[in-house]
């Protein structure tokens, strides 16, 4: 069986399990379940602490895992990302009290508190900064107020927690993160079980991003209509019973669907419909 690590809690856990369910895999119903076997799909899921997933995957005990890019890089594990999943996006930034510093060039001799010691230490080395890094688990916003550090480095989603603590973001982003699928560095890239798993998740990503659009169009306007809805390869076109009309079917990006419908209507197309895509293989 393919052995897959899934976060057991945190911002990635819920969306990851939802995506796996959409991809046709069984998922746990109770948070106490640590292992779930899906015999139909020949997959075994292990629900682990998000920070540990890269370590387990790099050891070869598990084939692949879902985790955050930030957690992967911070772990220093011999693992690599092989698919971006498009959720749990965040930015890793420095923050401090106003007037303390404007960026890494001012950090010499200071102490930086973070839960991501590996990422911060590497970034400081790249910037040539001589600063100390102290590791704290959990929220680090209070580290400055309590005198543990002058700077913090943390994941920033909305910035609300930082503002509430009287802190401001400084400097350029250290990195951007999102949920990713990872595997051990050097693992067989053509493993058919892994490839099938990736195709399923890619199918979910496409299904979430596209809709199927159907409409009727006069033949003389067809070329302009097709230019609006080119599809992935090309649209499907079928003649209608009424001479001079054709039916067109094409995949379009869901975020563009309303605008495209307006443009098609202005062009003379009618019976314009969009349908959600629940699964696909491209």
UniProtKB/TrEMBL annotation:
<feature type="domain" description="Histidine biosynthesis HisG C-terminal">
    <location>
        <begin position="207"/>
        <end position="278"/>
    </location>
</feature>
<dbReference type="Pfam" id="PF08029">
    <property type="entry name" value="HisG_C"/>
</dbReference>
<dbReference type="InterPro" id="IPR011322">
    <property type="entry name" value="N-reg_PII-like_a/b"/>
</dbReference>
<dbReference type="GO" id="GO:0005737">
    <property type="term" value="C:cytoplasm"/>
</dbReference>
<feature type="domain" description="ATP phosphoribosyltransferase catalytic">
    <location>
        <begin position="49"/>
        <end position="203"/>
    </location>
</feature>
<dbReference type="GO" id="GO:0000287">
    <property type="term" value="F:magnesium ion binding"/>
</dbReference>
<comment type="pathway">
    <text>Amino-acid biosynthesis; L-histidine biosynthesis; L-histidine from 5-phospho-alpha-D-ribose 1-diphosphate: step 1/9.</text>
</comment>
<keyword id="KW-0368">Histidine biosynthesis</keyword>
<keyword id="KW-0328">Glycosyltransferase</keyword>
<dbReference type="GO" id="GO:0005524">
    <property type="term" value="F:ATP binding"/>
</dbReference>
<dbReference type="InterPro" id="IPR013115">
    <property type="entry name" value="HisG_C"/>
</dbReference>
<dbReference type="GO" id="GO:0000105">
    <property type="term" value="P:L-histidine biosynthetic process"/>
</dbReference>
<comment type="similarity">
    <text>Belongs to the ATP phosphoribosyltransferase family. Long subfamily.</text>
</comment>
<comment type="function">
    <text>Catalyzes the condensation of ATP and 5-phosphoribose 1-diphosphate to form N'-(5'-phosphoribosyl)-ATP (PR-ATP). Has a crucial role in the pathway because the rate of histidine biosynthesis seems to be controlled primarily by regulation of HisG enzymatic activity.</text>
</comment>
<keyword id="KW-0028">Amino-acid biosynthesis</keyword>
<protein>
    <recommendedName>
        <fullName>ATP phosphoribosyltransferase</fullName>
        <ecNumber>2.4.2.17</ecNumber>
    </recommendedName>
</protein>
<keyword id="KW-0460">Magnesium</keyword>
<dbReference type="Pfam" id="PF01634">
    <property type="entry name" value="HisG"/>
</dbReference>
<dbReference type="GO" id="GO:0003879">
    <property type="term" value="F:ATP phosphoribosyltransferase activity"/>
</dbReference>
<keyword id="KW-0479">Metal-binding</keyword>
<dbReference type="InterPro" id="IPR020621">
    <property type="entry name" value="ATP-PRT_HisG_long"/>
</dbReference>
<keyword id="KW-0547">Nucleotide-binding</keyword>
<dbReference type="InterPro" id="IPR013820">
    <property type="entry name" value="ATP_PRibTrfase_cat"/>
</dbReference>
<keyword id="KW-0067">ATP-binding</keyword>
<keyword id="KW-0808">Transferase</keyword>
<dbReference type="InterPro" id="IPR001348">
    <property type="entry name" value="ATP_PRibTrfase_HisG"/>
</dbReference>
<keyword id="KW-0963">Cytoplasm</keyword>
<dbReference type="InterPro" id="IPR015867">
    <property type="entry name" value="N-reg_PII/ATP_PRibTrfase_C"/>
</dbReference>
